[in-house]
Write a structure and sequence with these properties.
The protein is α+β, with helices and mostly antiparallel strands. The chain has eight helices and eleven strands.
């Protein structure tokens, strides 16, 4: 389809911006027309000019809580009523950066829910359900962020900035998990080695049973052959003649 030339400005059609997550396409932003003025339309065949209204199509988010229901429903599917109530309490207490800066104990006190319910719900909201986007992200032990692709209060440009921070934290958390997993594997191997070493019986040194055994001990400890003779004699062992004892000592 040909476009209309308006003093070097071309009018073309625009499509809605879409977000693709794990092969599924979701519409997250929309386009809006904005009147900017008039231009003269040139008819190239006749040379006549006609005034036309010019509208610019802009991509915008509006300043209200935007909820992509498909994301939201999939993320919190299976959560009981009590936990669902906490999820919406979190949404109602987010700051401008989509964060909830609060410990779980403080959340329990301010929401009026038990600490056990808060702990279980916060863990559930940080897990992906059937491949859907994760609803909640843990920044640290006292701060959490709701996924801006699910709900956000603010303009489109500010949401894009928060979304960048969200994915940066995702990458940092993944690195931390990988490091912790490697340390856990190393610790497990070390514990297994310690158990094996404890299970092995302690080897006691073998007691000499003859004059020849003492000769071998004398050689290994840099003692003279005469030392072996006296040790064997004290034990009451049969003694070898000196030449034979020396021959054994030299051969070791």
């Amino acid at each position: 389809m040909s476009s209309l030339k308006l003093d070097k400005i071309e009018l073309r059609t625009y499509n809605k911006n879409k977000c693709i997550y794990q092969g599924v396409t979701f519409v997250t932003t929309s386009k809006k027309q904005k009147f900017v003025g008039y231009k003269m339309l040139l008819d190239e065949e006749t040379g006549d000019r006609y005034p036309v209204q010019i509208n610019v199509v802009e991509e915008r988010d509006f300043n209200f809580n935007k909820v992509w229901l498909q994301h939201l429903v999939n993320s919190i599917d299976g959560i009981s009523n009590q936990r669902l109530r906490l999820a919406f309490w979190i949404i109602d207490n987010l700051d401008r950066e989509n964060k909830l800066v609060m410990t779980q104990r403080a959340i329990s006190e301010k929401s009026g829910m038990s600490l056990n319910t808060v702990v279980k719900t916060m863990k559930s909201l940080q897990e992906s359900n059937n491949g859907a986007p994760t609803f909640l992200q843990k920044i640290n032990s006292g701060a959490y962020r709701v996924n801006p692709d699910i709900i956000y209060k603010g303009s489109h440009s500010s949401r894009m900035g928060i979304l960048y921070d969200y994915y940066e934290t995702c990458r940092e958390n993944k690195k931390s998990e990988d490091t912790a997993e490697k340390k856990s594997e190393i610790t497990e191997i070390q514990e297994q080695n310690e158990l094996q070493s404890h299970d092995e019986p302690t080897r006691q040194p073998k007691e000499p049973q003859s004059h020849e055994d003492y000769i071998r001990i004398a050689k290994s400890t840099n003692r003279k052959v005469g030392w072996a003779y006296y040790q064997a004699q004290n034990k009451g062992f049969d003694l070898l003649d000196k030449e034979k004892a020396q021959e054994i000592y030299d051969s070791i």
